[in-house]
Amino acid sequence: MTVLKTSMRNFFAHKGRMALSAVAVLLSVAFVCGTLVFTDTMNTTFDKLFAVTTSDVTVSPKNAETDETPQNGVPESVPAATLDQVRSAEGVQSVEGAVVSMNVTVVDSDNDNVGSTTGAPTFAGNWTDNDLRSMEITSGHAPRGPTEMMVDADTADKHGLKLGDELRTIAQTGDFTAQIVGIATFKVTNPGAAVVYFDTPTAQTELLGAPDRFTQLNVTAAAGVSDTRLKQNIDRVLDGGFKLQTAEEASDEARAEVGEFMNVIRYAMLGFAGIAFLVGVFLIINTFSMLVAQRTREIGLMRAIGSSRRQVNRSVLVEALLLGVIGSVLGVAAGVGVAVGLMKLMSAAGMNLSTDDLTVKATTPVVGVVLGVVVTVLAAYLPARRAGKVSPMAALRDAGTPADGRSGWIRGAIGLALTGAGAAALYLAGTSDKAADGALMLGLGVVLSLIGFVVIGPLLAGGVVRVISAVLLRVFGPVGRMAERNALRNPRRTGATGAALMIGLALVACLSVVGSSMVASATSELDKSVGADFIVQGNQRIVPQAEKAMQDTPGLKHVTRYKMLDATLTSPDGKKDDGGVTAADPTYAEDLRRPVTAGTLADAYGPDAMSVGSDYAEEHGIRVGDTVSVAFDGGRTAQLKVAAITDDDSALDQGARYLSIETMRKYVPADRVPPSMMMFAEAQEGQEEQAYAALKQSLDPYPQYQVRDQTDYKEELKDQVGQLLNMVYGLLALAIIVAVLGVVNTLALSVVERTREIGLMRAIGMSRRQLRRMIRLESVVIALFGALLGLGLGMGWGATAQKLLALEGLNVLDIPWPTIIGVFIGSAFVGLFAALVPAFRAGRMNVLNAIATE
């Protein structure tokens, strides 16, 4: 009880200091809990949607996959005659045929895409009774003929659509126009997909190209018949060439597909929360170390009157426990707010998430509180253990906590060993011949070098701070020298404070180097290898009508089609590979100048010929003239002669196996030939600008495709990498905020620790302005110390990562010096900002009271 009372008294005696540490715990726990609540809410949203959209039993083609577009761009389907077969099964109450296609684009009269802008699909199909389970018609009526359609209310609101508007639907089988005659509203939350409906004959003809087929059959069980029983009964009346799923099985399959995406989001965000926790550890260690140092005499009195080391230790740990509980509980509550904020952000971006589905599982607050408390108590263990070692006499003399030179040398030796091991691992990663092995060594090197720098931080602080001070602080005269001495007074404290900032900035520097190198490598590869003037591609395969529009564009020397096919290859050594092949026009050899190690690429586009990549050739001992067996999915098996071996030391089309479109057509039925994944074009000599404008005009009716010249392509690549990095930097900002709190806390406690010293300096003539400047300069030096270590470490990680990327053809190392320099200068401003409150409080101290402080 005495220990608890002492801990409570000490805790509330330092409310301000504890509050900053509690904020660090709060932010970290809030990010963890917010991530869990956000992803759980998204799962709940999808679960509700799947639950109401799946029928008791679904009958679909045997090879249908819900998350994939078939090779030929037209959904797999079943004959309409199957409907009567299923209806005859025992236990069937009703069955209806459904048509669903995701390989469509819907545009308005201005050719603007009215589909989702968040990556969610656009669904087109026929209106069925099964749709009434998830939607209701709130305006107009269901479509009744080939010129009528219905849209969902969310899409109508987002794009200002109303009854009577005409929309054009672009499908693999052709374009068709229909007028909006109805608007349907979701009964559950629509995560962001756009949905359009037609009558059944129109959907069959326009989306499937066949009037007597369905993509699936929705079967409703009679009263008293279970889904499993109904599935068995249907299986008996069919010939086995179909995929049968109960409602639960269909929901589980859809949930698993969404779950993969959700897991990526969850683990990525939790990873950043972990970084914030790691940074918070340094803040907590520093806080308790300084509080223990300031209470040295008090601890000595406790020991003198009979308190044991264990009781002193326990007293500090109880304070940490209180800090962890308060910060974690507040963090759990803040986490719900973070989740709601993320939902609002996603809704603004086009993905609708309703707070009605907000899901806070019982495990979420438990995870948040336990994680926050455990991390806080563990972080406070070392200061608590150090406090317990204070001898009563040393404490009463105010000798401070024990810190012998031997422990410092041991720490330095361990830090050097870890740093050396990390550097060796990074070297091995950079010289690795296999990306998988190198990635493992890179991960090991990052962890060891980071821990090594953290451990060796106090040893580095002396030298690095002196160098920074010599460059920056000498111009400030005596005030600058005092700021330097204050930063060097306790190297362990300076090292820990700088390490918190170091972690976040190391990751920023590493990712900047990797991102910049990727862009530079891809740009270099484009300049070296791409001969085409224009590249056309989009989120969907290129429909035939768009392909024809491109081929009819004036001013083009040639147009190249590029198609990817599912196929299984059998090499001469008998081993199989299902990596598929690429079919292209012979002009592709001009559009992409792939270097070859043997043969001639132009010969690979001859009859019954192909090329293979150098890695595949080496693995299977293939030489020019050998024969590879290619079994085309949905087609026949061909025996193709290897006419060229392309060099896989390239990021573009690495590992591709080429053959001509004519060879493909010889073995693949016309209805199984895939549309082009992308197309290339070269302008007539001297007509580049006119051809570019003409090509854009030709494809203007198809907004799902983008026309880019090489400059556009490079800019788009740069923008995509930049957007990704900005998102990562935003998440890393949490760790940097926690690090800033650490600097603030360290300075605030340092000011309290030096109260008497500050009073004496004021008494002998130091002005308030000079005092505040001294504290600000000290903060800047600590921030720049952490930034210098972090940026140096991060650039080393990034350079090593680029060596691994070179194995995938990204050969250019590019250091983004403007970003690195900008971050370094920004760190100085971070130091200034962190010192504002401590410097202001120091300047307000009463001189006489400060001198009288014990």
Structural features:
single chain; 854 residues; alpha+beta; 4 domains; six-stranded mixed β-sheet; 26 helices; 57% helix
Descriptive report:
57% of the residues lie in helices and 16% in strands. The chain has 26 helices and 26 strands. The protein folds into 4 domains: 1-54 and 253-402, no CATH class; 63-240, no CATH class; 460-533 and 709-854, no CATH class; 541-703, no CATH class. Helix 2 runs antiparallel to helix 21 (710-753), helix 7 packs parallel to helix 21 and helix 15 (491-529) crosses helix 23. It is globular, with a radius of gyration of 34 Å. The model is unreliable at 398-405 (pLDDT under 50). By secondary structure, it is of the alpha+beta class. The strands form 5 sheets. Strands 4, 5, 6, 7, 8, 9, 10 and 11 form an 8-stranded mixed sheet that branches. Strands 24-19-16-25-15-26 form a 6-stranded mixed sheet.
Give me the secondary-structure topology.
Blueprint lengths: L1 H12 L1 H39 L3 E5 L16 E2 L2 H6 L4 E7 L1 E2 L3 E3 L14 E5 L8 E6 L7 E5 H7 L6 E6 L2 E13 L7 E5 L1 H9 L4 E2 L1 E6 L5 H11 L4 E5 H48 L1 H9 L4 H41 L13 H26 L3 H5 L8 H26 L4 H38 L4 H13 L1 H39 L4 E5 L5 H8 L4 E10 L1 E4 L5 E2 L3 E4 L3 H4 L4 E4 L9 E5 H7 L6 E6 L4 E10 L11 E3 H7 L10 E6 L4 H11 L6 E5 H44 L1 H9 L4 H39 L10 H18 L1 H8 L3 H6 L2
Parallel strand pairs: 6-11, 8-10, 19-24, 21-23
Antiparallel strand pairs: 1-13, 1-14, 2-12, 3-13, 4-6, 5-9, 7-10, 8-11, 9-10, 15-25, 15-26, 16-19, 16-25, 17-18, 17-22, 20-23, 22-23
Helix pairs in contact: 1-9, 2-7, 2-9, 2-10, 2-21, 7-10, 7-15, 7-21, 9-10, 12-13, 12-23, 13-14, 13-15, 13-23, 14-23, 15-21, 15-23, 21-25, 23-24, 23-25
